[in-house]
Automatic annotation (TrEMBL):
<feature type="active site" description="Proton acceptor">
    <location>
        <position position="69"/>
    </location>
</feature>
<dbReference type="GO" id="GO:0046872">
    <property type="term" value="F:metal ion binding"/>
</dbReference>
<feature type="binding site">
    <location>
        <position position="69"/>
    </location>
    <ligand>
        <name>Mg(2+)</name>
    </ligand>
</feature>
<keyword id="KW-0546">Nucleotide metabolism</keyword>
<feature type="binding site">
    <location>
        <begin position="7"/>
        <end position="12"/>
    </location>
    <ligand>
        <name>substrate</name>
    </ligand>
</feature>
<dbReference type="InterPro" id="IPR029001">
    <property type="entry name" value="ITPase-like_fam"/>
</dbReference>
<dbReference type="GO" id="GO:0036222">
    <property type="term" value="F:XTP diphosphatase activity"/>
</dbReference>
<dbReference type="GO" id="GO:0017111">
    <property type="term" value="F:ribonucleoside triphosphate phosphatase activity"/>
</dbReference>
<keyword id="KW-0547">Nucleotide-binding</keyword>
<dbReference type="GO" id="GO:0036220">
    <property type="term" value="F:ITP diphosphatase activity"/>
</dbReference>
<feature type="binding site">
    <location>
        <position position="70"/>
    </location>
    <ligand>
        <name>substrate</name>
    </ligand>
</feature>
<dbReference type="InterPro" id="IPR002637">
    <property type="entry name" value="RdgB/HAM1"/>
</dbReference>
<dbReference type="InterPro" id="IPR020922">
    <property type="entry name" value="dITP/XTP_pyrophosphatase"/>
</dbReference>
<keyword id="KW-0460">Magnesium</keyword>
<dbReference type="Pfam" id="PF01725">
    <property type="entry name" value="Ham1p_like"/>
</dbReference>
<comment type="subunit">
    <text>Homodimer.</text>
</comment>
<keyword id="KW-0479">Metal-binding</keyword>
């Protein structure tokens, strides 16, 4: 089954493809499908923004689509950066800068208060326009420096067990991640629907 991902984020696309392809899904990005779209994320929750992105693409293509809205919630920062994870710190700040922003804000915060989680909401819209959502999360804590070269975004400062997610291999991360959990729920759902 073909699924088109409503995202321009190459790292997300890579993970989504790797998680879903063993189940027989052929995931294409919207640009691979010839569509150039940047839906404005005006929602205040991951679920709202995920739905906005999926709908915007479905309204153009009228084929099965998925969208991923995800982010980091840091408890000591009142769950920031949350839905603003991709835009934290404003224009001109990159993934590395955003990691340092979080690290700097947590200066002096002890280990026990550095709890955080990644959250993901996957929206699926079928060929008839029916929408279903699936969520996933992974609990961890914010480290004290950037460590590791794998993954993307906040992975180098997000510690699970004794390593950052950027020290996990792709498959190790996908087996425990927020995105992996949500996409496996989608797969379970689609199994009952289409096979
Ligand atoms: P979105 O495109 O609005 O969903 O932005 C998600 C943002 O959250 C990304 O740009 C990253 O900064 C962060 N994020 C989401 N998932 C992950 C992950 O698996 N690892 C690291 N950062 C992530």
């Amino acid at each position: 089954m073909d699924l088109i991902l409503a995202s321009n984020n190459k790292d997300k696309l890579k993970e989504v493809k790797r998680i879903l392809s063993p189940y027989g899904f052929n995931v294409k990005s919207q640009s691979e499908a010839g569509i150039h779209l940047e839906a404005e994320e005006t929602g205040t929750t991951f679920a709202e923004n995920s739905a906005i992105k999926a709908k915007a693409l479905y309204d153009i293509i009228h084929k099965p689509v998925i969208a991923d809205d995800s982010g980091l919630e840091v408890d000591a920062l009142g769950k920031e950066p949350g839905v603003y994870s991709a835009r934290y710190g404003g224009e001109g700040v990159d993934d590395i800068g955003r990691c340092y922003l979080v690290l700097n804000k947590l200066e002096g915060v002890p280990d026990s208060k550095r709890t955080a989680r990644f959250v993901c909401v996957i929206t699926y819209i079928d060929e008839n326009g029916e929408m279903t959502q699936f969520d996933g999360k992974i609990e961890g804590r914010i480290g004290y420096e950037r460590i590791g070269d794998n993954g993307f975004g906040y992975d180098p400062i997000f510690v699970v067990g004794d390593r950052t997610l950027a020290q996990y291999s792709e498959d190790e991360k996908n087996a425990v991640s927020h995105r992996g959990e949500a996409l496996r729920k989608l797969e379970e759902y689609l199994k009952t629907k289409i096979r």
